[in-house]
Design goal:
311 residues, mainly alpha, 13 helices, 3% strand
Length: 311
């Protein structure tokens, strides 16, 4: 297949999944014009590097272009149009090193839950330990955003049908299924929570939990649990990394089950509330290295698979 045709087919695929990024489309077309209308399988690392080095660009812009080309060629590798990834080594950052999200292990999560037993000693009387545990479990088991989680009302959480509806965010409304284990945890929490607050997750006085309060509480519990980053690749683990952890654990489970990632990624994108599939594709680079080979050789599935993967 000619490079120009492969670019247009790729752009059309992205549009079908809701990604109408004009800048990205223009960049790929410009790359095609620069290399020439050769066979996509004949593009070399030198071709890619020469195009990336055109003009003067910041490290951030360079890496953005690099990732777009990498995603483009990985797409065609999965369709047997390209045999080998024609990507040079990434440019070494000259400024501040990139911050990689922290992916929590199951052991990390156990330590975090254990550390909530010491919340009273740490002085956090505003949020009850059961409420804090329920919020952490919910974020870990759904990959939901922090703001939309704290905005959930009692009516938004349907434990009878195992669904949660996000109304109160700047993004489009969506309803997601949740797994039976998470449903059971939330049911126990709901029964024990007797303050009759409007919000599903609320402070002891019934008021909504402010994100800042949750961040500070989590940081104290994390330090108490001894969940630390030791790879030097970014800042210490954060509350928002639970969303990335959910996505990566889904990818890991689907890879082990040999599911078709091309069909699962749009499902994951809808589940997480992503408008563009490219936002979901970024999680591929965070998956364990030992699964990278299988990521392009992954069988049909449905939204049920997301629920089964979740807690």
């Amino acid at each position: 297949m000619k490079l120009s045709r492969s670019v247009e087919k790729y752009i059309e695929m992205k549009r079908l999944f809701g990604n109408s990024n004009v800048w990205s489309a223009g960049f790929l077309r410009a790359f095609s014009r620069h290399v020439g209308d050769v066979s996509i399988g004949s593009v070399t690392k030198s071709n890619v590097l020469r195009y990336l080095e055109l003009g003067r660009t910041s490290d951030v812009t360079w890496m953005m272009k690099y990732r777009m080309l990498r995603a483009f060629f990985e797409y065609w590798i999965a369709r047997d149009e390209v045999r080998e990834l024609p990507m040079p080594r990434p440019r070494a950052a000259t400024g501040r090193p990139a911050t990689l999200p922290y992916i929590y292990s199951v052991s990390d999560m156990r330590r975090l839950f254990w550390a909530t037993c010491f919340m009273r000693r740490l002085g956090w009387r505003t949020v009850a330990p059961p409420t804090f545990r329920a919020v952490i479990l919910f974020l870990y088991g759904t990959g939901a955003r922090i703001d939309e989680t704290l905005a959930l009302t009692q009516d938004d959480v349907d434990l009878r049908n195992h669904t949660v509806t996000f109304h109160h965010s700047a993004r489009a409304m969506r309803t997601i299924p949740i797994g039976p284990t998470l449903s059971q945890w939330l049911r126990v929490y709901s029964v024990s929570n007797s303050n009759h607050a409007a919000n599903f997750f609320a402070r002891k006085d019934g008021k909504a939990i402010e994100p800042r309060l949750l961040y500070v509480t989590f940081e104290s519990v994390r330090r108490r649990a001894g969940v630390l980053r030791t790879d030097g690749l970014g800042r210490q683990p954060r509350l928002r990394d639970l969303r990335r952890t959910f996505a990566v654990h889904c990818l890991k489970a689907w890879t082990e089950q040999t599911k078709d990632l091309r069909k699962m990624l749009p499902i994951l994108a809808a589940y997480l509330g992503h408008v563009c599939l490219s936002s979901t594709e970024e999680y591929l680079s965070l998956a364990p290295n030992r699964f990278q080979k299988q990521l392009s050789h992954l069988s049909p599935a449905s939204a049920q698979s997301v629920r089964d993967t979740a807690l």
